[in-house]
Specification:
mainly alpha, 6 helices, 0% strand, elongated
Length: 183
C-alpha cells in the first residue's frame, strides 16, 4: 500500500502548479517577453510529458507486482479512485486555465496592435503556440486520467453490474436475478 500511495502522490504532483501565464511586462518588447513565456511553457510541457511517461510505466509495474503478490486491497483501489478524481480535477483546471489565457490574450493582442503594430503578427503567432502547449498539456492530463481508469478496470474486482454484462442471454440474466432475490 505504501508503494501505491507514493506512486499516486507522484502522479498528481506531475500536473500540480499552474500552466503559466503570458507575460508582456518588464521590457519594451512585447515579443521578447511573450517568447520567454512560450519557451517556459514548452519546457514545462516537455518535463511533464517525460514525467508522465515514466509515471505510467512505474504504476503499471507497481500494480502488476501488487497483483502477483495479492496486495491489491480495497484501500489501494480507494487511493486509486482518489487519484483519478484528483487528476480529473487537474484536467478541468487546465482546460479552465487555457480558456482564461485565451481571453487574456485577446486583451494583450489589442494592446500590441495599439502600441507595437510591428510586433503584432509575431506576438499573435507566439500566443497561438502558448495556447497550443496548454491544449497539449490538457490532453496529456486526460491521457493520464484514462490510464488510471484502465488500471482500475484491470485490477478491480468486477461489480455485480459488470458480472451481469457478461451473461450470454436475457434468460441467463433473469435466472441470476431470480436466484439473487430468492437468496
Amino acid at each position: 500500500m505504501a508503494t501505491a500511495a507514493l506512486a499516486f502522490k507522484e502522479t498528481t504532483e506531475i500536473y500540480s502548479g499552474g500552466f503559466g501565464a503570458l507575460s508582456a511586462r518588464g521590457e519594451s518588447s512585447y515579443l521578447t517577453n511573450i517568447r520567454r513565456s512560450v519557451d517556459d511553457a514548452e519546457r514545462m510541457l516537455n518535463r511533464r510529458k517525460s514525467a508522465a511517461i515514466e509515471e505510467r510505466r512505474r504504476l503499471a509495474t507497481v500494480f502488476k507486482d501488487m497483483h502477483k503478490a495479492g496486495e491489491i486491497t480495497t484501500e489501494v483501489l480507494t487511493s486509486l479512485d482518489l487519484t483519478i478524481s484528483a487528476v480529473s480535477a487537474q484536467a478541468t483546471e487546465q482546460a479552465d486555465a487555457v480558456e482564461a489565457i485565451s481571453i487574456e490574450a485577446e486583451t494583450l493582442l489589442a494592446q500590441v496592435r495599439a502600441l507595437r503594430i510591428d510586433e503584432y503578427k509575431a506576438v499573435r503567432k507566439e500566443i497561438a503556440r502558448f495556447l497550443d502547449y496548454g491544449k497539449v498539456m490538457h490532453s496529456d492530463i486526460v491521457d493520464m486520467y484514462y490510464f488510471l481508469l484502465s488500471l482500475k478496470n484491470e485490477y478491480a474486482e468486477p461489480t455485480h453490474s459488470e458480472v451481469a454484462a457478461t451473461f450470454d442471454s436475457a434468460s441467463d440474466v433473469r435466472a441470476f436475478l431470480k436466484a439473487s432475490l430468492a437468496g
